[in-house]
Amino acid sequence: MFGFYATCFLFVILVLGTILRLVTGISIFKLLKYLGKWTGEFDKDRADLVLSGKDPFDEVAFAAGDDHGGGAWDEELAEMDVDLTDTRALPVGANR
Questions:
Q1: Could you tell me the sign of the dihedral formed by the alpha carbons of 92, 77, 73, 45, in that order?
Q2: Taking Cα atoms as reference points, which of 29, 6, 7 lies closest to residue 17?
Q3: Separation in Å, CA 76 to CA 18, 26, 51, 80
Q4: What is the rounded CA–CA span in Å between residue 54 and residue 4?
Q5: pLDDT number for residue 45
Q6: Which ranges of the chain have pLDDT less than 70?
């Protein structure tokens, strides 16, 4: 079993790391370092509020281009006339 995981690890580092470096110029180790730093910035308190339903997702604000949070309390975004009939971002089979 160890041989399987060692082979997978080597494949990811050597093969996929080389392809990543050739295509984008980014080292796989720098990418992993960045991802480690990024995941360390996870806002657990905000996630708890959203997942508990106390701070629900504001679809109107998101459709208006607000990608940094905000919410219905943001009067400028709440008053915007946004067309929610554009279903390109909905999963396949989802209906409104």
A1: positive
A2: 29
A3: 47, 40, 25, 7
A4: 45
A5: 82
A6: 39-40, 61, 65-96
For the chain, how many residues are written?
96
| pTM score, whole prediction | 0.39
- What pLDDT does 36 receive? 77
Judged on CB neighbours under 10 Å (0-12, 13-18, 19+), 21 is: middle
Structure-block tokens of residue 70: 């905000």
Contact 28, 16 (CB under 8 A): yes
pLDDT at 48: 81
Token reading at 51: 């997942």
Which residue has 């915007």 as its token pair? 80
Report yes or no: 31 and 23 within 8 Å, Cβ to Cβ.
Answer: no
Q: Exposed/middle/buried for 71, CB within 10 Å: 0-12, 13-18, 19+?
A: middle
* CA dist., res. 96 & res. 94, Å (int): 7
pLDDT at 11 (0 to 100): 95
